[in-house]
Fold this sequence. Notes:
Number of strands: 5
Number of helices: 3
Helix content: 25-40%
Amino acid sequence: MSIWWSLHLRREAASVPLARRLLxxxxxxxxxxxxxxxxxxxxLTEACANAVEHGGAAGGRFGPAxxxxxxxxxxxxxxxxIEVADSGPGxxxxxxxxxxDTYAExxxxxxxxxxxxxxxxxxxxxxxxxxxxxDKLLKWRPDAPLALA
Length: 149
């Protein structure tokens, strides 16, 4: 069974927990292991926070740059893929993943996403803007209603 959803969210801090709660609720309902759900929800939080903070220096396909970003989640088979796209300036060339500085207040989000997900792709959307996509193999609870047999 497959589940997917997509949200267009305002670039406001209040949108971040909304996306996180929707992802956690979807995974709980499907029967995904809570540890996997938590890892993905933290990675999603970081990606959304980046879109809110950095995704608005230029206009893009989602309307005025200061207005929206998109979150899409796919639970398909044994994998969950999450994509967060904004309409900001994107990354100049290959997306930077700065070295982890344990005490830095900013700049750790992409590194954290890399640590929590199995595969990460950071690049540009088709019309400018940043795209962060990541996936993780799912583990299922024994009583999972949507797990593959």
